[in-house]
Amino acid sequence: MAANRTFSIIKPDATRRNLTGAVTKMLEEAGLRVVASKRIHMSREQAEEFYGVHRERPFFNDLVTFMISGPVVVQVLEGENAVQRNRDIMGATNPANADAGTIRKELAESIEANSVHGSDSDENAATEIAFFFKPEEIVG
């Protein structure tokens, strides 16, 4: 299978605790390669647009407020079956249900502060990558 790309965010709870390197190490050890990465502080407008699919859900405002509460690290990851590989190493959304050795089981604080976001499909990965990165910023 050919390598493809996915999108990842290291969330404010993880950057606040200086876990960017630990998360990246886990991603790399799972066979993913970081081909673009930058630390940003999302604006409210960016977060609302990025998470717009959840706008009608009751947790939308809390999610946006959390995501703008501190810096995040946005990344493009590359590897074989990158979307699924990233989802496997992230673990279940609720850390209590995540498998041992996954990012969320080992590093997350709660279901809300679960340390990472990852694309759920190749199509969403392409959309999410384009939201944060220009093609020339991806150097794989």
From TrEMBL:
InterPro entries: NDK-like_dom, NDK-like_dom_sf, Nucleoside_diP_kinase
A Pfam family reported for this protein in Swiss-Prot or TrEMBL: NDK
NCBIfam families according to UniProt: PRK00668.1 (NF001908)
Gene Ontology terms, MF aspect: ATP binding; metal ion binding; nucleoside diphosphate kinase activity
Identification of the protein by name: Nucleoside diphosphate kinase
Predominant location category: cytoplasm
Binding site for ATP: 11, 59, 87, 93, 104, 114
